[in-house]
Protein backbone atom coordinates (compact mmCIF):
# COMPACT_ATOMS: atom_id res chain seq x y z
CA UNK A 1 0.00 0.00 0.00
CA UNK A 2 1.43 3.35 -1.03
CA UNK A 3 2.05 5.81 1.71
CA UNK A 4 2.74 9.37 2.61
CA UNK A 5 4.01 9.52 6.16
CA UNK A 6 4.06 12.63 8.29
CA UNK A 7 6.40 12.37 11.21
CA UNK A 8 4.09 13.72 13.92
CA UNK A 9 0.34 13.49 14.39
CA UNK A 10 0.21 16.20 17.08
CA UNK A 11 2.69 18.93 17.95
CA UNK A 12 2.62 21.70 20.51
CA UNK A 13 5.19 24.45 20.11
CA UNK A 14 5.84 27.83 21.70
CA UNK A 15 5.61 31.15 19.90
CA UNK A 16 8.94 31.99 18.28
CA UNK A 17 10.19 28.43 18.05
CA UNK A 18 11.52 27.03 14.78
CA UNK A 19 9.33 24.11 13.76
CA UNK A 20 10.09 21.31 11.31
CA UNK A 21 7.32 19.19 9.81
CA UNK A 22 8.58 16.16 7.94
CA UNK A 23 6.93 14.23 5.13
CA UNK A 24 8.16 11.07 3.42
CA UNK A 25 6.58 9.22 0.49
CA UNK A 26 7.44 5.76 -0.74
CA UNK A 27 5.89 5.95 -4.22
CA UNK A 28 8.80 7.54 -6.11
CA UNK A 29 6.52 10.50 -6.85
CA UNK A 30 8.01 13.58 -8.47
CA UNK A 31 5.59 16.09 -6.95
CA UNK A 32 5.12 16.95 -3.29
CA UNK A 33 2.89 19.53 -1.67
CA UNK A 34 2.22 21.16 1.68
CA UNK A 35 -1.28 22.43 2.51
CA UNK A 36 -2.85 23.75 5.66
CA UNK A 37 -6.44 22.90 6.47
CA UNK A 38 -8.59 25.26 8.52
CA UNK A 39 -12.35 25.04 9.22
CA UNK A 40 -14.34 26.99 6.65
CA UNK A 41 -11.25 27.71 4.55
CA UNK A 42 -10.61 24.29 3.07
CA UNK A 43 -7.10 23.39 1.96
CA UNK A 44 -4.70 26.18 1.10
CA UNK A 45 -1.41 25.52 -0.67
CA UNK A 46 1.71 26.66 1.15
CA UNK A 47 4.57 25.34 -0.98
CA UNK A 48 5.12 22.64 -3.56
CA UNK A 49 7.97 20.93 -5.35
CA UNK A 50 8.16 19.21 -8.72
CA UNK A 51 11.71 17.91 -8.28
CA UNK A 52 14.56 17.53 -5.85
CA UNK A 53 15.98 20.88 -4.70
CA UNK A 54 13.14 22.64 -6.48
CA UNK A 55 10.43 24.58 -4.66
CA UNK A 56 7.67 26.99 -5.58
CA UNK A 57 5.47 29.21 -3.47
CA UNK A 58 1.83 28.39 -3.19
CA UNK A 59 -0.98 30.71 -2.18
CA UNK A 60 0.07 31.36 1.44
CA UNK A 61 3.87 30.99 1.75
CA UNK A 62 4.45 33.80 4.25
CA UNK A 63 6.09 32.58 7.43
CA UNK A 64 7.04 29.22 5.91
CA UNK A 65 9.91 27.70 3.99
CA UNK A 66 10.56 24.21 2.62
CA UNK A 67 13.39 21.85 1.85
CA UNK A 68 13.59 18.97 -0.59
CA UNK A 69 17.05 17.42 -0.53
CA UNK A 70 15.86 13.94 -1.47
CA UNK A 71 13.06 12.88 -3.79
CA UNK A 72 11.11 11.10 -1.09
CA UNK A 73 11.29 13.79 1.60
CA UNK A 74 9.69 17.23 1.74
CA UNK A 75 10.07 19.31 4.88
CA UNK A 76 8.02 22.32 5.92
CA UNK A 77 9.74 24.83 8.18
CA UNK A 78 8.11 27.47 10.32
CA UNK A 79 10.97 29.89 10.91
CA UNK A 80 9.38 31.54 13.94
CA UNK A 81 6.09 29.96 14.91
CA UNK A 82 3.15 32.23 15.64
CA UNK A 83 -0.29 31.50 17.05
CA UNK A 84 -1.94 32.11 13.67
CA UNK A 85 -0.02 29.13 12.35
CA UNK A 86 -2.01 26.81 14.60
CA UNK A 87 -3.59 24.49 12.05
CA UNK A 88 -3.74 21.03 10.49
CA UNK A 89 -0.86 20.59 8.03
CA UNK A 90 -1.28 18.11 5.20
CA UNK A 91 1.44 16.71 2.99
CA UNK A 92 0.61 15.16 -0.36
CA UNK A 93 2.45 13.64 -3.28
CA UNK A 94 1.62 12.79 -6.88
CA UNK A 95 3.20 11.43 -10.01
CA UNK A 96 4.21 13.94 -12.69
CA UNK A 97 1.34 15.16 -14.86
CA UNK A 98 -1.96 16.87 -14.23
CA UNK A 99 -4.19 13.80 -14.51
CA UNK A 100 -3.09 12.19 -11.29
CA UNK A 101 -4.67 12.86 -7.99
CA UNK A 102 -2.77 13.31 -4.79
CA UNK A 103 -2.00 10.81 -2.08
CA UNK A 104 -2.27 12.52 1.29
CA UNK A 105 -0.62 11.91 4.61
CA UNK A 106 -2.61 11.72 7.83
CA UNK A 107 -1.77 15.29 8.77
CA UNK A 108 0.02 17.03 11.61
CA UNK A 109 -2.09 19.07 13.99
CA UNK A 110 0.15 21.89 15.16
CA UNK A 111 -0.76 24.06 18.11
CA UNK A 112 1.35 27.14 18.77
CA UNK A 113 0.97 28.53 22.28
CA UNK B 1 -6.13 32.18 -10.82
CA UNK B 2 -8.65 29.41 -10.74
CA UNK B 3 -11.07 29.04 -7.85
CA UNK B 4 -13.47 26.39 -6.64
CA UNK B 5 -16.80 27.07 -4.92
CA UNK B 6 -18.68 24.64 -2.73
CA UNK B 7 -21.81 26.46 -1.68
CA UNK B 8 -23.10 23.82 0.73
CA UNK B 9 -21.09 24.15 3.92
CA UNK B 10 -22.99 21.63 6.01
CA UNK B 11 -25.55 19.13 4.74
CA UNK B 12 -27.63 16.94 7.02
CA UNK B 13 -29.51 13.98 5.57
CA UNK B 14 -31.28 10.89 6.80
CA UNK B 15 -30.08 7.47 5.75
CA UNK B 16 -31.35 6.37 2.31
CA UNK B 17 -31.83 9.97 1.17
CA UNK B 18 -30.31 11.05 -2.13
CA UNK B 19 -27.28 13.32 -2.10
CA UNK B 20 -26.05 16.04 -4.39
CA UNK B 21 -23.14 18.29 -3.42
CA UNK B 22 -22.40 21.27 -5.58
CA UNK B 23 -19.03 22.25 -7.02
CA UNK B 24 -18.32 25.11 -9.41
CA UNK B 25 -14.97 26.23 -10.73
CA UNK B 26 -13.83 29.40 -12.42
CA UNK B 27 -11.24 28.35 -15.01
CA UNK B 28 -12.41 28.41 -18.63
CA UNK B 29 -9.83 26.13 -20.24
CA UNK B 30 -9.25 22.40 -20.07
CA UNK B 31 -9.55 21.14 -16.51
CA UNK B 32 -9.18 18.02 -14.45
CA UNK B 33 -11.70 17.66 -11.64
CA UNK B 34 -11.53 15.66 -8.43
CA UNK B 35 -13.61 14.84 -5.40
CA UNK B 36 -11.88 13.87 -2.16
CA UNK B 37 -13.41 12.61 1.06
CA UNK B 38 -12.12 12.91 4.60
CA UNK B 39 -13.77 10.56 7.09
CA UNK B 40 -13.54 11.59 10.76
CA UNK B 41 -9.97 11.18 11.98
CA UNK B 42 -8.71 9.88 8.65
CA UNK B 43 -6.65 11.23 5.80
CA UNK B 44 -8.08 12.62 2.57
CA UNK B 45 -8.90 9.95 0.00
CA UNK B 46 -9.70 10.24 -3.68
CA UNK B 47 -13.36 9.47 -4.45
CA UNK B 48 -13.32 10.03 -8.18
CA UNK B 49 -11.77 12.13 -10.89
CA UNK B 50 -12.52 13.40 -14.37
CA UNK B 51 -9.96 14.36 -17.01
CA UNK B 52 -11.53 13.37 -20.33
CA UNK B 53 -14.19 11.22 -21.98
CA UNK B 54 -17.59 10.40 -20.50
CA UNK B 55 -18.65 13.37 -18.37
CA UNK B 56 -20.42 11.04 -15.93
CA UNK B 57 -17.76 9.58 -13.70
CA UNK B 58 -18.25 6.76 -11.25
CA UNK B 59 -16.13 6.46 -8.15
CA UNK B 60 -15.80 4.33 -5.07
CA UNK B 61 -18.59 3.57 -2.57
CA UNK B 62 -21.40 4.28 -5.05
CA UNK B 63 -20.54 7.93 -5.67
CA UNK B 64 -20.69 9.55 -9.09
CA UNK B 65 -20.16 13.05 -10.47
CA UNK B 66 -21.17 14.78 -13.64
CA UNK B 67 -19.00 17.28 -15.45
CA UNK B 68 -21.12 19.97 -17.13
CA UNK B 69 -18.72 22.20 -19.02
CA UNK B 70 -21.31 24.85 -19.89
CA UNK B 71 -22.10 25.32 -16.20
CA UNK B 72 -18.49 24.98 -14.94
CA UNK B 73 -19.82 22.38 -12.54
CA UNK B 74 -18.82 18.98 -11.21
CA UNK B 75 -21.52 17.97 -8.73
CA UNK B 76 -21.17 14.87 -6.59
CA UNK B 77 -24.14 12.51 -6.27
CA UNK B 78 -25.16 9.35 -4.49
CA UNK B 79 -28.66 7.84 -4.82
CA UNK B 80 -28.92 6.51 -1.28
CA UNK B 81 -26.58 7.60 1.51
CA UNK B 82 -25.49 5.55 4.50
CA UNK B 83 -24.46 6.60 7.98
CA UNK B 84 -20.87 5.69 7.03
CA UNK B 85 -20.89 8.47 4.42
CA UNK B 86 -20.63 11.02 7.23
CA UNK B 87 -17.47 12.92 6.28
CA UNK B 88 -16.14 16.11 4.78
CA UNK B 89 -16.08 16.30 0.99
CA UNK B 90 -13.72 18.47 -1.04
CA UNK B 91 -13.89 19.36 -4.70
CA UNK B 92 -10.61 20.20 -6.45
CA UNK B 93 -9.51 21.33 -9.88
CA UNK B 94 -6.34 21.80 -11.87
CA UNK B 95 -5.63 22.86 -15.40
CA UNK B 96 -5.49 19.89 -17.70
CA UNK B 97 -1.84 20.02 -18.70
CA UNK B 98 1.60 19.94 -17.16
CA UNK B 99 2.33 19.49 -13.51
CA UNK B 100 -0.57 21.50 -12.30
CA UNK B 101 -1.25 21.86 -8.63
CA UNK B 102 -4.76 21.32 -7.27
CA UNK B 103 -6.98 24.12 -6.06
CA UNK B 104 -9.46 22.94 -3.44
CA UNK B 105 -12.88 24.18 -2.44
CA UNK B 106 -13.71 25.00 1.17
CA UNK B 107 -15.37 21.63 1.70
CA UNK B 108 -18.86 20.38 2.56
CA UNK B 109 -19.48 18.65 5.84
CA UNK B 110 -22.01 15.83 5.41
CA UNK B 111 -23.83 14.44 8.42
CA UNK B 112 -26.03 11.36 7.96
CA UNK B 113 -28.62 10.71 10.61
CA UNK B 114 -29.34 7.00 11.19
Characteristic terms for this protein:
heterodimer, A: 113 residues, mainly beta, 7-stranded mixed β-sheet, 3-stranded antiparallel β-sheet, B: mainly beta, 6-stranded mixed β-sheet, 4-stranded antiparallel β-sheet, globular
State the gist of this model.
The complex is a heterodimer of chains A (113) and B (114). With 113 residues, chain A is mainly beta.
Number of helices of chain B: 0
Q: How much of the polypeptide of chain A forms β-strand, as a percent range?
A: over 45%
Order of helices and strands of chain A: EEEEEEEEEEEE
Give the fraction of residues assigned to helices of chain B.
Answer: under 10%
How would you describe the shape of chain B?
A: globular
What is the H/E order of chain B? Answer: EEEEEEEEEEEE
Biggest sheet of chain A: strands, sense, closure? 7 strands, mixed
Describe the structure.
The complex is a heterodimer of chains A (113) and B (114). With 113 residues, chain A is mainly beta. Chain A contains no helices and twelve strands. In chain A, strands 2, 5, 6, 7, 10, 11 and 12 form a seven-stranded mixed β-sheet that branches. In chain A, strands 3-9-8 form a three-stranded antiparallel β-sheet, with no helix packed on it. In chain A, β6 and β7 form a beta hairpin. Chain A starts with a strand and ends with a strand. The model of chain A has no long low-confidence stretch (mean pLDDT 94). Chain B has 114 residues and is mainly beta. Chain B has no helices and twelve strands. Chain B has strands at 4-5, 10-14, 19-21, 24-25, 31-38, 45-50, 56-58, 64-68, 73-78, 87-95, 103-104, 108-113. In chain B, the strands form three sheets. In chain B, strands 2, 5, 6, 10, 11 and 12 form a six-stranded mixed β-sheet that branches. Chain B is globular. The termini of chain B are far apart. The mean pLDDT of chain B is 93. Classes of the chains: A mainly beta (113), B mainly beta (114). Chain A binds chain B through residues 30-31, 33, 35, 40-45, 48, 50, 58, 90, 92, 96-99, 101-102, 104-107, and chain B through 6, 9, 32, 34, 36, 42-46, 49, 51, 90, 94-107.
Amino acid sequence: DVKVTQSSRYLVKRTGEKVFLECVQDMDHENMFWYRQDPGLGLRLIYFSYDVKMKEKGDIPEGYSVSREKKERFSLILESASTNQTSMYLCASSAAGANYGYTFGSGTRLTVV
Amino acid sequence: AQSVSQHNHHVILSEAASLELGCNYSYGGTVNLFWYVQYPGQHLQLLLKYFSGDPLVKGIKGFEAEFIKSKFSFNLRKPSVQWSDTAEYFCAVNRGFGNEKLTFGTGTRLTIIP
